[in-house]
């Protein structure tokens, strides 16, 4: 039983890291879009590109399913909500088993 709780805690930690990466990606993208930070800044460009490469395999299928909304990309929001729903379901299943 404690193994299930430990597994849930690991999944919860990974979801929290994933959400933070999405937020960091969003903020850096806004800073580039509004020219607060020059996109030629090598450090932030590398960080942004690395985060995009990490998140793209998860966000791309959601982007393909969702309708085009113009300049606003809602796929990160959908993925965050989906991950939170997954955590709630897992928590319910684990609490019913324990």
Give the topology string: H per helix, E per strand: HHH
Largest sheet: none
Number of strands: 0
- Secondary-structure class: mainly alpha
Give the end-to-end Cα distance, rounded to a whole number of Å: 6 Å
User: What is the CA-based Rg, rounded?
Assistant: 17 Å
Task: Give an overview in words.
By secondary structure, the chain is mainly alpha-helical. It has one domain (2-97). The protein has 3 helices and no strands. The protein has helices spanning 2-33, 42-65, 75-97. The longest helix is centred in the first third of the chain and has 32 residues, at 2-33.
What descriptive keywords fit this protein?
single chain, 98 residues, mainly alpha, 3 helices
Concise account of the structure shown:
The protein is mostly helical.
Q: Mind sketching the topology for me?
A:
Elements: H1 2-33, H2 42-65, H3 75-97
Helix pairs in contact: 1-2, 1-3, 2-3
């Amino acid at each position: 039983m404690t193994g299930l709780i430990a597994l849930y805690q690991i999944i919860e930690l990974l979801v929290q890291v994933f959400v933070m990466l999405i937020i960091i990606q969003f903020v850096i993208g806004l800073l580039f879009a509004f020219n607060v930070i020059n996109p030629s800044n090598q450090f932030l460009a590398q960080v942004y590109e690395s985060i995009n490469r990490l998140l793209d395999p998860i966000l791309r299928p959601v982007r393909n399913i969702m309708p085009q909304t113009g300049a606003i990309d809602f796929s990160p929001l959908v993925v965050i909500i989906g991950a939170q729903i997954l955590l709630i379901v897992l928590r319910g299943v684990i609490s019913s088993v324990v």
